[in-house]
Amino acid sequence: MTERRLAWALVAPALIVTAAVALFPLGWTVWESLHQHDLRMPWLGRPFVGLDNYVEIVSDGRFWGAMLHTVFFTAVSVAVELGLGLFFALALNRVFRGRGMVRAAVLIPWSIPTVVAALLWRFLFDAQAGIANAVLVGLGFLDEPVVWLVRAATAWVPVILADVWKTTPFVALLLLAGLQNIDPALYEAAAVDGATAWRQLWNVTLPLLRPALAVALIFRTLDAFRIFDLIYVLTGGGPGTATEPLALYTFNALFSNLRFGYGAALSVIIFLVTFLLALLYLKGLGSLTEEER
Amino acid sequence: MRFPALLALSSLVLACGGSDDAGTLLRISGSAVGAEGEILTRQIARYQAKSPGVRVVIQSTPDDASQRHQLYVQWLNARVGTPDVLQLDVVWTPEFAAAGWILPLDRYSPPRRDSFPASLEANAWQGRLYAVPWFMDVGMLYWRTDLLARPPATLDELAAGARRAASGSGFVWQGARYEGLVTVFLEVLGGYGGKILGPGHEVLVDSPEGVRALTWLRDLIRQGISPQEVLTWHEEETRFAFQNGQAVFLRNWPYAAPLLAGPGSRVAGRFSVAPMPAAPGGAPTAALGGGQLAINAHSRFPDAAWRLIAYLTAPEQMLERAEAVGQYPARRSVWSSPRLAAALQVPPDQVLRIVESAAARPATPIWTELSDVLQIWLHRSLAGQAGPEAALREAAREMERVIERSGLRKGIP
Amino acid sequence: MRRSGRWIAALALAFLVALVAFPFYWALMASFTPEARLFESPSLWPEQPVLDHYRALWNERDFWKPIRSSLIVAGTTTLFCVSVGSLAAWALARLRFRGKNAILGGLLAVSLFPQISLVSPLFLLLRWLRLIDTYPGLILPYLTFAMPLAVWLLTSFFRQLPPDLEEAAAVDGATPWQTFRRVLLPLAAPGLATTSILTFIYCWNEFLFALSFTLGPERQTVPVAIALFRGQYQVPWGQILAAAVVATAPVALLVLAFQRRIVQGLTAGAVKG
Fold it and tell me: Of B98, B177, B406, which has the smallest distance from its Cβ to A238's Cβ?
């Protein structure tokens, strides 16, 4: 069998299975987005309206607000997660006693269902019964308890903390696996050449960690961009709509307001934006498979 | 040989399909948790015993309103025939009726005369009844009998009484950005004599009464009569504040009464309920909540579904529910039963006054969208981000746009 | 690294681990606290610890059922995605052919579609296949995010392995399949373990699909079961937190079991060139 045929034979199962489940929903959504389809008012029918839904989205203030919130949330949480994740990975890469337990401990936040984690963090930041206020006031950082979820600026704090708490382990684990693949001999060679720890990190570790960093960055960004459960449970998108991300807005359009055509158009837009981001990443970080050719 | 085995194993699980059902099997979606779940299970068992050939299964759905709503939308839009009997939130009936997802019930002769007018209004669409009220929830004022001689007679008295309270939280209510906030606003609005929508979908919320109502609420926070936290509180947080003795007044639903009277409550035996008061020119208004039962339009057994609904909403079952869970019966005739007095925490005749002042939210299919707009602007104003008049004006404008888009004013073919 | 540097790193790590572990510690303490006390002023240790919540989990909630469902669904999805995915990843990492980027990009694109938009059409599709409220009815939708994740991760890991051993095996006359099974897979054990854990946890946490495609307690997974704990107004914190504690146990055990694999270094004596 030629290499090409073998390759396609190996890739086929994964592709076929994924396509089988995904193509119909994708096609259906795109089709819906070109129609006006309001479930509450069947007497209006399901007319084909072309790009009208998209035009309405572009002039929808709430949409742009949601876009802003999503970008903000993604930028901040991914940056923090990458930094922290790298730190953890580097630390866990060293041999020390109890390493296994620490690894397991670090992964626990991620294994708690998102819904529960959101409730937990809402509880922690409750104005009256939450430990956050108790600690901050007790340590003197605050004069009086803050009502976190009432102001937009402070409402983001538990949201971002909850997400960082929850997904840094994913990044750390990914980077740790990448670190494992770096030949220790390279560090020894660098040390012999007189490089400090910092230089070793910069010149040896980070470049070799690029593929793992790329994957972590891509997946975390794309996940953060589609955040839903966490905010739905923690703030409900409030105060007002100040913490409402795109996915939650789409949920409201679809299942609260039953405007399926409009919601479908929102979905397509989310998809296109994330796809664009993915493309940018791939171009910027270099393709995984063609890197060394 | 591990690898192929793993692959085979996982494919095997994937290949197993679903099963099939046969017979008169009714599915009812309702609460399966706690006391509500228990009483429902008990009543269903009795019903099955006296209806040979019928099996009833509870399909558990989340009690969280928007999660349950999402599931319903999904199932009904896909024309799934189950659950045959749906438990609806009071504001969903017109929406589901307009979408063609539930059956009109007039041909089954539902108990119209025995129901309260507000319930009938909420469950009707285009003159036909689409759901039967199962239990009623009404917003009411809980007040401390050890701190006050009598409940406040006007909204201003309420504010004054709360202001005089020693501790921080005079009056606690639900001010988070969700449907509960709109029900609170509805009560104060009715107290000033205002309405949200007129019968022909006219937007009335930005009237002078509306501004007065929103100003009153905003001032509660501004003057420290209500803690700022109320803007993040749902029902439970407010209940705890009152239960721990921190508040003089609490606006909440009936479910709180047994909890406030139970062990662990610092105010057991020291509270009572009263209607939310009004201002001159208005009338005491209680927001209507509660559950209703409807028949899935694609159900395979609509007649059997009706018989189940008729059983569950019969006076005896309603009384049993009141005794087990403390939920208010939706039938007038049940209110004169002596058993009800023993079941409820508060004397029934007092509560009946509140129930009779119940006002439904506007019965329109687009209510969720309108409420969404209203919630946002109410919350913004209460949080100090917009003045009451400006906020209501903006809200009215957006609500107009939604109504225009729906074509509901032009009438339905 | 100098001595002091090592101490600083250790302290920083300890501090961060404490921060990470604290909310879970809090949840653990709260799960032993009677319900009424939960909303009073917070304390670091329950005054009168009770087992009520855990007892309720077993007696009232039959909590072992959702755990079983979650294990089956997450486990099967992971097994399937890692096995099928590793075949694809090997091809993408090692073999020469055109269209690699298209394939990776295509898989990624599939996982990019917002879940909430997929729910309705997927429901229609699953209903047509009569798979609502079944295990395959959950596993199939999970493939939309699990398969791309597995393929991407595995491709990345395979890519990083030195090809020397495989080339040596080829020279020795091994078929591609033998090379794959006997040389690559053992070498890639850390990557396989990591991918398995990550995929498993992704599936374990998933909520929206599980909520929408299951109908009853026999098939509902852990996140859905926990969501159903909530009454209309009341959030039974004690039980929810107890459930969370219980739900993390299988995952924690899994991680402990796999973590040595994750960090297994290169095999001793591997050719380094």
Answer: B177
